[in-house]
Design brief:
alpha/beta, seven-stranded mixed β-sheet, three-stranded antiparallel β-sheet, 43% helix, globular, disordered N terminus
Length: 513
Amino acid sequence: MAERCVVAPPAIKVTNEQDKNGKAPAAGGATGNGSAAAANCSKAKPDSSLKERTTKAQRRAMQEAQRAAKAERMAADGKAPSKPKGKSQKSTDSASAASSATASSATAAPPSSGAEKRSAKGEHRISASVQADDPKVQAKLSKQLGKQNIQQRPGELKCRLFSHLHQHRRDFPLTMHMTGNNDIHPAVLQLGLMYANYTIRGANARCIALLRVLRVFVADYTTPPQKEMARDLEAMLKPQISFLNTCRLISPSMGNAIKHTKLCISQLSPDLPEEEAKDKLLQQIIAYKTEKISVARIAIVSLGASQITDGNVVVTFGYSTVVHQIFKEAHNNGVSFRVVVADSRPFFEGRKMIHFLEEEGIDCSHLPISALCYVLSSVSLVIMGASSVTSNGYCVSRVGTAGVASTANRYSVPVIIACESHKFSERVQSDSIVFNELGDPNDLVYSQVHGKDQQPRKDSASKALQGWDLHPNLALVNLLYDVVRPEHVSMLLTEVGQVPCSSAPAVLRIKMA
């Protein structure tokens, strides 16, 4: 063994001479004898003088350069490069990430969708909420929910165009397979069932109910021994959000409230006592509701009431809390106007608006959405609410809103959308097909309406649709949301002022400041 290793120093010596002459050393030594000796000395320890000449960072840089050259050669030959393992993979990923970040600094990147997340390798990762037709994604999601003791909704027959969306049904037993050792808080369980049954509807109503339940959850929380409150509380919050999302998809307003709550949790100091930390977190949740919803509503109502003048005929669609308050404020200011409420299936929320307007003494009338074009010639203004506003200026609201806005635009009637900034989303959306929500198809058979007591009840069933689920080739599509194009909206009413749809990114920057 010692005789084989005698030739190792000459090989290194030759390499030193070549370095002095400014030439690159050969891969296996200067001569054939050197390469043979290197092969025989594969198990021998490297010379200490080599480590003295190159640092660890230099050797790592050389390895990365060799990998890059190998990848280029294999790419030129049409072969897929092999993936390195271990620590070298992390260094390669960090180097590629740094190079991509440097390259992207000179060029503006296009806006990314809220349901698409860019991974560390630069690939788009699509949310599981729009991949209901992918068995692998659903199997992975079912496994994740199973760890949290949450049952996943089964796949059902749907229209092929919307097969990527999850189907929600009221009669699905969300709590049948739950055991007594689950981590779902009773208040969260009750709220999720109310979401699933559509007892609580509307972006503001759902967000307010969520904030109220979060306060109960935080107040009842107790830090386990040998654990930090901030980390454990955030871990305990995850199954609560997963259960609510299973009951019904999280709306943008709810998502922003959850992000704010998690941010406040992460900023809690570990030195604070548990009671003080909980009180601080509860005050921050209350402040979010007061600032983002209550105060913002007052500002929007003041702006919206100033848009209504004497003799105006105002059209609205469905029911919106902010729009209702605008009409009430304008009536209290002594303005004489008339309201036309357009309505549609399956919830007939316009009847709820008519009920409140009659109590306020406001002159109003009710008509189906299909008859709206007959009255638009005498309409002065259209005011509607929105569930969210995307970063590219599109407004997302209940199904039918886009039809009202486009018809009003055809008759040159200005359309005003009232929306608080906490409903603004970073998502980019231009249609109602890729991102949407499928409601219970039975709602198209049994329409949920509100009586004078504001309690939901079922109308008589449509005889034409009875027994629809017995036909294997028939599927009912109950889309819940519409997307309104920016060119059909004249103005957005927010707490930051009256802005066009193109100013949605500016409102997002103000909200995040």
